Amino acid sequence: MLKQKNIMDYSVGDDAHLFLLLTKIDKKTTRTGKEFLSLELRDISGTISAKMWDGFEVFFHSASEGKIAKVDCKFDEYNGTPQLIINRIRLANESDGVAHSDFLPRSQRDFEEMKAEWNNIVESLTNGDLKTLIEKIFDEETKEKYFNVPAGKAWHHAYIHGLLEHTLEIIKICKTACDIHPELNRDLIIAGAILHDFGKVEELTYETSFDYTDKGKLIGHIVIAAMRIEAKAKAISDFPEALKNQLIHLVLSHQGKLEHASPVVPKMPEAVVLYHADEMSAKSNAYLNVAKNDRQGNSNWTNFIRLAETAIYIPPIEGDDTPKDSFFD
Amino acid sequence: MLKQKNIMDYSVGDDAHLFLLLTKIDKKTTRTGKEFLSLELRDISGTISAKMWDGFEVFFHSASEGKIAKVDCKFDEYNGTPQLIINRIRLANESDGVAHSDFLPRSQRDFEEMKAEWNNIVESLTNGDLKTLIEKIFDEETKEKYFNVPAGKAWHHAYIHGLLEHTLEIIKICKTACDIHPELNRDLIIAGAILHDFGKVEELTYETSFDYTDKGKLIGHIVIAAMRIEAKAKAISDFPEALKNQLIHLVLSHQGKLEHASPVVPKMPEAVVLYHADEMSAKSNAYLNVAKNDRQGNSNWTNFIRLAETAIYIPPIEGDDTPKDSFFD
Amino acid sequence: MLKQKNIMDYSVGDDAHLFLLLTKIDKKTTRTGKEFLSLELRDISGTISAKMWDGFEVFFHSASEGKIAKVDCKFDEYNGTPQLIINRIRLANESDGVAHSDFLPRSQRDFEEMKAEWNNIVESLTNGDLKTLIEKIFDEETKEKYFNVPAGKAWHHAYIHGLLEHTLEIIKICKTACDIHPELNRDLIIAGAILHDFGKVEELTYETSFDYTDKGKLIGHIVIAAMRIEAKAKAISDFPEALKNQLIHLVLSHQGKLEHASPVVPKMPEAVVLYHADEMSAKSNAYLNVAKNDRQGNSNWTNFIRLAETAIYIPPIEGDDTPKDSFFD
Amino acid sequence: MLKQKNIMDYSVGDDAHLFLLLTKIDKKTTRTGKEFLSLELRDISGTISAKMWDGFEVFFHSASEGKIAKVDCKFDEYNGTPQLIINRIRLANESDGVAHSDFLPRSQRDFEEMKAEWNNIVESLTNGDLKTLIEKIFDEETKEKYFNVPAGKAWHHAYIHGLLEHTLEIIKICKTACDIHPELNRDLIIAGAILHDFGKVEELTYETSFDYTDKGKLIGHIVIAAMRIEAKAKAISDFPEALKNQLIHLVLSHQGKLEHASPVVPKMPEAVVLYHADEMSAKSNAYLNVAKNDRQGNSNWTNFIRLAETAIYIPPIEGDDTPKDSFFD
Amino acid sequence: MLKQKNIMDYSVGDDAHLFLLLTKIDKKTTRTGKEFLSLELRDISGTISAKMWDGFEVFFHSASEGKIAKVDCKFDEYNGTPQLIINRIRLANESDGVAHSDFLPRSQRDFEEMKAEWNNIVESLTNGDLKTLIEKIFDEETKEKYFNVPAGKAWHHAYIHGLLEHTLEIIKICKTACDIHPELNRDLIIAGAILHDFGKVEELTYETSFDYTDKGKLIGHIVIAAMRIEAKAKAISDFPEALKNQLIHLVLSHQGKLEHASPVVPKMPEAVVLYHADEMSAKSNAYLNVAKNDRQGNSNWTNFIRLAETAIYIPPIEGDDTPKDSFFD
Amino acid sequence: MLKQKNIMDYSVGDDAHLFLLLTKIDKKTTRTGKEFLSLELRDISGTISAKMWDGFEVFFHSASEGKIAKVDCKFDEYNGTPQLIINRIRLANESDGVAHSDFLPRSQRDFEEMKAEWNNIVESLTNGDLKTLIEKIFDEETKEKYFNVPAGKAWHHAYIHGLLEHTLEIIKICKTACDIHPELNRDLIIAGAILHDFGKVEELTYETSFDYTDKGKLIGHIVIAAMRIEAKAKAISDFPEALKNQLIHLVLSHQGKLEHASPVVPKMPEAVVLYHADEMSAKSNAYLNVAKNDRQGNSNWTNFIRLAETAIYIPPIEGDDTPKDSFFD
Questions:
Q1: Which 3 state secondary structure label does DSSP give E23?
Q2: pLDDT tens-digit map of C284-305
Q3: What is the DSSP letter of C322?
């Protein structure tokens, strides 16, 4: 894994040699007619604009979005926003030993620990049918994708291993619900939690950046998961029909309401538990991230967050000097 | 097929010997303590209440809802509503040569003609992949169910062969749209029309009465159809992935809006055509049926129809006598 | 506490001497002109109709809804529904040693255990301001009401001690969320959970039956709680203004959406966690109760539940005989 | 009609002499203080920006939006977007023989053929009252406007003759519905289709560009049409009152729902057919246009279309090279 | 006008000779087979059920709903609800000097005073065009209907002269708004208020009971009014086009929102004033009536009012003995 | 109070010495690398951009948003928008005798007159409890804030004394409603009107600009007012509980609908009157302001107003030369 200083940690005037992922590339012209290269580049800590004024033609014709570049540059700013001025640039090659995953955000949790936790949960299932089904669905290739895919493009758990982290949180919450109500079908809920967002494996791409696939936009992760369960359950002899329908129901109804794209609403106590566990995991992750990253100036608020339909409040830390507005100096 | 006079055509005082389907059965007690048998019975023309005052014990212990009974009865009325007074009753047996389908409403269109029309449409598909897929989905058993199932429990095309009639109407409307816009993918629309409500084969039961199955309520006909297409297309070597996703998209989006239980909205011109053709076929069938059957007294209106969110207007026929609403005479 | 056999456990023909709570009382007339007393009575297990044919005049003039009666009766049925035929009846008097609480449903959980759990939670708060505030709010009289009041009239935790049971469930779920996200303000969430439905103490009456007070209907439990927190925090010197506003925000926003009667939406991660913990506790309790009590005949479904906007599915138990639905056997 | 090469077909560096419609005109200043003329111009194929650096004062004082200009110019580009650099410019005069209609988009269908089709439909009406009414409404001047007006400002059939084309499509779809259901009142539906958007004649201007009139915004095309029908039917002796109300009902309800600005919902089978035929014609036209014109780069999707509440999918053509999106090659 | 004691003021056992309006008439049969006449009758104070056991055949064949009957009867009750037992009955004839209006509720305000107030308002208009238009619309016949028609079937001002009373209230409120904002077009608002519900003249029937006409249900009072204004303004030479459109706009938008059946939303300050004045007049009338008439038992609440989406609170009168529920007697 | 010419009344090229309020301050860099000061400044008439090219370093380090500056400047324009070029600038000091209120918009009505009107209204209350309560709530400090605060940030009455002006309008409208319906509780409505937006005293800041406080965003003015009434009523011995609940109900329900952030809907005639009086005052103020200030070019319309969900129409003044679009010059 790539070790280099994050772009967010440099200061204006610093020089640097960095590998960066190319997320936009254009040739533009100043009002006075001079051509220049306009780029957007990212490392694991975020995104930065860049300009290159000379000697970019060869690079421009070989490069494209999604490629990794090695840049020799100086940190600068333009109207208060940081930017890079590039002196030299080339595409990375195999011997550089860099990969796209070096430039994508990833879960803060330890990956090996999360995998072990997930495996233990599957191991703990006592319903043989559900356990067999999950083992059949998760062949090695599928499991690798499932362990890597983010849970979304931008809103919550939007980083490598995000779906895994999100799923483990949901299971933890669902287990609490099962402790409260032992009459709930624990194995059904856990299998539902494991599979509820399974379709994101096909709905999202995450190799060079996070985006939706055509299949994802035409069918959606909910129905993709349902189709996979149906296919794999059919391949198991005597898989109980009622149990299969219940599991598919949990997956289909996990967004809770028709207008949130669930084709059926939750019709079982287990489904309603899964729905709210999913919401709690998703929203608390999203709100905490926003509160950490989007504070507006000296205020105690982020800007308006469309998906939350509000700005988020960030409590002032006690002992903190809150900004005081005296009228005159 | 059973030949007997419809119950709607008898008058008060008539005696009759009829085969009728038992849709409710209860033993009740009058205020003065006398026990009697209270029944609801149906033939192909509708439903009628019935009472039996004596000698019903043997029958009561052998009978249950969904069975066919032979009744010896007199037509009577109670507080203005027609009812039967039963003298003798027994369950039908095989030698009576009656079947449940004798008591269920069915399409007015000729069944053989509809089947031929459907077969011709499939035959006319020029896209080999879609044609193969449809032939694979419609094995003999499936085709028989598909040709018999109603399109719904009560609202539109709610009769035997209803789904077939409804599908043919949609295809006719879609063909008009294709004539207007030759750039539409005709075969994709037709395949989508054929399969859009396919899931009703598993969503509904129609043997003794029309109702939803557990699977239908937990998963819904939309996803049932998607799962079937996925499974059958996978079994065809080299079925084009993009085409499969488009076809599933048409099925998933055919109810047009998330709040109408489609998990994705129409995202292709073909999908939006199918959505409105389905609506036009369903609504015109439903509104015409309601207008024919639910006129309120002498008014030009039906009562309030919940699914239409309005009462329906029935234009007065010029020179017509006002509508007759007595049940008998 | 009253010890007598539950009315739901008697059979037709049984004679009984019972204390029952009077929930409806009317004098009616048969078609033939005979007057009789028509009653609805309840014990802890449910409600039953009753008729008394003679000698009821004295009782009728002294009785009213909400009083407790001692009845000498026989179990009977009328058109398939159980009813009591009363021979003698009188109002209970103090020496009978019965109380309204003997006739109201109550939590299945051990009351002493729940109180201890609640006290431990308050004890565990490390934020001195919040702890002081809660101790100030919960004087002995308030605490007793809070420990007894149901969480609602009918939908979830609608029984004596219901609010306490509901609050403990929410706290358990919130603690899981805090384990997942240690950066959440644990004490704030717990104080919010303790107080979120505090206003039900004034919104509901539960002495003779569960109903809303005028204040409850005019102001609502959400604002009642906010006003109490404001008043009690003001009485604590130097209670931090920002903390008070956050706590009131959690209470006000706990129903999650304006259209659910929260005057503000959740604007903090802690508020969004509390909202979903509340939903999960309420809905899982409600759905499980409905599934246990409202199965329709032999089907796997309850009837349509308005607040769930669906019928609830009750999975068939494998190897189980079909459910018995006769009231008496 | 003006014959000149479309601006979309020129390349960078080309010189041209063109008549163009002025849609925006401003005088601006560079950072260095130099004044220049900034224009937006359109021909029938689309819109382009333009700059003029010298000698524009006389023109600037006589010109205004909506005028036609003759320009002597060179095709250039600025930051990747095409623009014109104007050397000389003057307003068109009558002897130039150009008209605004030369610069407005128009239906692809043959105008004479559409007129004939429309006339035949009117001719085919068998209900004398409806036929007389339509002939009375469509005097020569009205008919000309009706034949020219677009069906909307931008969404569907937004070009000269658009309303006519749209109306003919609806009638074709309605005829299919009448073939399916012969009990529908064919003449009523056709008259409703002819008049449903009649009000657009007064709601829209289309002489120099497509826009709403004050009357259109204050009253709307639906009520404008209703008022015209009322007035013209009153002028026909013995026009049947019930028929008039039905026809106005079809016009008023053709947008199907109150929230779509219909003051009544469809209450007749004929009204529900017209509603869905209108939707099908409008949406299929709009989606096909968007799919043809708004593909985003190399993707299979348009950008988000607000009125469709989704992006539109454009299936990849098999064996096709990826789409070319450079403006000049 | 008919002078007789109101049916609501009689007691059980009283004999009476009354003129009553027949609102329902049926022949029914008891369980024991005896036929009887079942009626619903109304006077100005309300509605009552009635039974007649013998000698009703001649009356039954001549009578129908909407006729006035003279009855010789005794006040009785059945299961706690008052009813009449009829001894003799005949239809009223002209010499009886009774009219339907004797049996319909009417405004409490003095009719002559209201007419004078309305005439003064019209007289006070300073805009000649608007004044002429209103005089043209209100010929004698129209004015009489307008002065008599109720403002609705049941919700607000649902009595004879109700529209007039409602209109005068709106004008009073609008005048206050004009006092606050002298820049409002006072004459336009007043003309809009006078005409906003004008269409109810054709939307409602009120001769024998209050109901909607076919035209009312197919077109609605909003568009009916717009069509009348258009027709009458056209007949005035040089009526200003912009003023006419503004006036029609006020009428069309007076229900404030598309989903309340206004085809356009208010787009002028005058329109928004009229909308809220209408709401205030309608709702305060409706809520006050409900509070006066629908108190539930001893509670301070009416039952749930669908159009208000709530029960209405009726404050207890101070010094009043509120019912006290002691637990034991 | 500051006397100086409004910035909106200067012309390009004018020199001026002005006190202005600093609303934005940034240091920026031109493309050629030159630093400059970029400011936004306001006086009572509006806002203007400003640039300062030299000698701004000292000022930049002492200045911040919300301070008042004395500027020596020239009026200029940039791309058609007016801007200031600043020669010299310094912060205002106390001896300058200027205050923030000199730069904020204020009500057009006479402040002393409004205060007197408000005092008279309070004086006129006949209900001693309500009068005492209001006097207790409005101590001198509170009254001063209440008399100064705007009724909102931008939409209606968004100026100093705005809440007072708005409240007086509502009371005027409510009095009209009480004249129409003498049975309304006049004192309750007036007290409700006085207090309905009381919470804005704590919800908004208006010292240097109009904005929401943290408390305002977390709790909202509705609940802030309820808490204050509760606290002050508690401090009055024997304040009637029912009256207090009614008053709080009026405040809580004054936004009319849950989705408008009222935690209860109006459940009393008085509450529904207050709701519509508030709407009428707010909307007519907002629409009239928009119509006065936002006309788009030569059209009769403002641009789209998000809170009105429409553009607003501004009637052409008769005799006015409306813009005529001739096609050629």
A1: strand
A2: 999 999 998 887 777 899 988 8
A3: P
pLDDT, tens only, F250-289: 999 999 999 999 999 999 999 999 999 999 999 999 999 9
Q: Which residues of E touch D214 (CB under 8 A)?
A: 242, 245
- The number of residues in chain C equals 329
Region for residue E309 given its phi and psi (left: phi exceeds 0; alpha: psi -120 to 50; beta: otherwise): left
| Measured distance CA(C159)–CA(C147) in Å, rounded | 11
Cβ <8 Å between B313 and E218: yes
Neighbours of chain C (3+ CB pairs under 8 A): A, B, E, F
Residue F226 and residue C231: Cβ atoms within 8 Å?
Answer: no
Report the residue from A223, A230, A245 with minimal CB separation from B252.
A223
How many angstroms separate the CA atoms of E306 and E290, rounded?
12
* Band (B318; pLDDT cuts 50, 70, 90): low
Query: DSSP letters along F266-308, please?
Result: --SHHHHHHHHHHHHHHHHHHHHHHHHH-B-TTSSEEEEETTT
Tens digits of residue pLDDT in A95-129: 999 988 889 888 999 999 999 999 999 999 999 99
- CA angle (F152 as vertex; F150, F158 as ends), nearest 5: 60
Write out the H or E segment, with its range, that includes residue E280.
helix E269-293
Cβ distance D261 to E263 less than 8 Å, yes or no, reads yes
Instruction: Confirm if D245 and D192 have CB atoms less than 8 A apart.
Output: no
**Mean pLDDT for chain F overall:** 90
CA–CA dist F57, B184 (Å, integer): 66
Contacts E78 to C, Cβ<8 Å:
29
Closest residue by Cα to residue A38 from A29, A75, A46, A208: A29
Tokens read off for D92: 């068109």
ipTM for the complex shown: 0.87
- Say how far residue A319 (Cα) sits from the centre of its chain: 35
Reading the block at residue C254, the tokens are 């706990």
Other CB atoms within 10 Å distance of the CB of residue B242: 15
Beta strand A81-91 pairing with A46-52:
parallel
In 3D space, the residue among E30, B29, B61, E328 whose CA is nearest the CA of residue C83 turns out to be: B29
At B196-255, the pLDDT tens digits run 999 999 999 988 788 899 999 999 999 999 999 999 999 999 999 999 999 999 999 999
- pLDDT at D283 > cutoff 70: yes
Q: What is the spatial distance between Cα F133 and Cα F248, in angstroms, rounded to a whole number?
A: 12
Averaged pLDDT, E114-119: 97
Per-residue model confidence as pLDDT tens digits over E167-181: 999 999 999 999 999
Residue to mutate among F27, F214, F259, with most A CBs inside 10 A, is F214
What integer best gives the mean pLDDT of chain A?
Answer: 90
The mean per-residue pLDDT over the stretch B129-138 comes to 97
Q: Do A284 and C176 touch (CB under 8 A)?
A: no
Residue from C22, C217, C306 whose CB has the most chain E CBs within 10 Å, to mutate: C217
pLDDT digits (tens, 9 = 90+) for E121-152: 999 999 999 999 999 999 999 999 999 999 99
**Cβ neighbours of residue B239 under 8 Å, at least 6 residues apart?**
B129, B132, B133, B233
Instruction: For an interface test with E, give the residue of D224, D254, D264 to mutate (most E CBs within 10 A).
Output: D264
Interface of F with E (CB under 8 A): 169, 172-173, 176-177, 179-181, 183-185, 240, 242, 246, 249, 265-269, 272-273, 276-277, 279-281, 283-285, 287-288, 291, 308-313, 315-316, 318
A→F contacts (Cβ < 8 Å), by residue, are 30, 77-80, 300-301, 311, 313, 325, 327-329
Task: For residues A48 and A23, give the distance between their C-alpha atoms in angstroms, rounded to a whole number.
Answer: 10
Neighbours of E245 (CB within 10 A): 21
Q: What is the pLDDT of residue C47?
A: 84
- pTM of the predicted structure, to 2 decimals: 0.90
Which among F27, F67, F99 is the nearest to A329, CB-wise?
F67
